[in-house]
Design goal:
The structure is a single chain. About 5% of the residues are buried. Helices cover about 30% and strands about 15% of the residues. It is built from 3 helices and 2 strands; from the N terminus they run βαβαα. It has helices at about 25-30, 50, 55-65, and strands spanning about 10-15, 35-40. It is an alpha+beta fold and about 60 residues long. The protein is flat. The two termini are about 25 Å apart.
Length: about 60
């Protein structure tokens, strides 16, 4: 992902569950392209967009703004 040429907004749910792999932000950050934004949700699992639709929508709109 380091060479990904477009702006990137990444969201990561930190609640461990069957769908997840227990990935932590510090494991992902070294692989993100320069300027990428990583948002970790302490209170969400794999489906951050379903669990927190308003927060996700606000982040996306702000990112695209």
């Amino acid at each position: 992902m380091r060479a990904f040429p477009a702006p990137l907004l990444a969201m990561l749910g930190l609640v461990e569950e069957e769908m997840g792999w227990g990935t932590r932000p510090e494991s992902v950050e070294p692989f993100l392209p320069r300027g990428a934004k990583l948002v970790a949700f302490e209170d969400s699992g794999h489906f951050v967009h379903i669990e927190h639709p308003r927060r996700v929508a606000d982040l996306v709109l702000d990112f695209l703004g």
